[in-house]
Amino acid sequence: MAAVHPHLPAWEAVLSPDERARAQRYRQAPDAARFVVGRGLLRLLLAHCLGLPARGVALAPRAGKPMLQQSQEGQHFNVAHSGEYVLVALAPGPVGIDVEQIADYDPHCRAVAQRSFAPAEYAWLQQADVPAEAFGKLWTRKEALAKAVGTGIDAHWPHLPSLDGAQVLPPSPGFAGRNWAVHSFAAAPGYAAAVAHETAAWANHPPLFVDVDASLLDIAAG
């Protein structure tokens, strides 16, 4: 996890020319900053895993998302951002991560919850002491699992379980029947976050959560 705004020029320095040009096309400065830090953090982490310089990581867009080119495949990753933070997940198998800035649990959120959550999830939400935090927890779990499985926010969304951490998804047109684990974690005050992964891929490697700051940039430059 990295904060968006500190050391922005240093993050930008590790991007490819195409990525820097894309950042300049964003109309809103906060959106550009999130892209720069997210892509820079992804490059630095992948570079560490692959034993390459950050600019030597070959990323290519595929279905609107960055993917490793075939010569560097074997490392799975996912990126999420919200508000002031960017999160990157690396894993030996399919992985999904999500972070959301917690907002008020207003009538719009209640309508989204009724439409998007299973009856048991909605009932749990209605009984929560802090509904806004409970909504964020359920939503980020579903989003992380959807990204790991490869489905979108569609008709299958209410069927993606989010009440506990061990998920078994039965075979269906929306997703493959495999075992998954979902972990909620404290990204920062006022944020909800979750990461989802196949249990088999991480059987001997429980998730490790790390905050990243400018020291990573110093290491990469040195």
From TrEMBL:
Record keyword Nucleus present: no
Domain 4'-phosphopantetheinyl transferase, first and last residues per copy: 94-170
Keyword set, alphabetical order: Transferase
Superkingdom classification of source: Bacteria
KW Transferase (keyword) present: yes
InterPro entries registered for this protein in UniProt: 4-PPantetheinyl_Trfase_dom (IPR008278), 4-PPantetheinyl_Trfase_dom_sf (IPR037143), AASDHPPT_N (IPR055066), P-Pant_transferase_sf (IPR050559)
GO CC annotation, single: cytosol
All copies of domain 4'-phosphopantetheinyl transferase N-terminal, residue ranges: 13-89
A single BP term in Gene Ontology: lysine biosynthetic process via aminoadipic acid
GO molecular function: holo-[acyl-carrier-protein] synthase activity; magnesium ion binding
Family: Belongs to the P-Pant transferase superfamily. Gsp/Sfp/HetI/AcpT family.
PANTHER family: L-AMINOADIPATE-SEMIALDEHYDE DEHYDROGENASE-PHOSPHOPANTETHEINYL TRANSFERASE, PHOSPHOPANTETHEINE TRANSFERASE
Name of the featured protein: 4'-phosphopantetheinyl transferase superfamily protein
Organism from which the protein derives: Hymenobacter oligotrophus
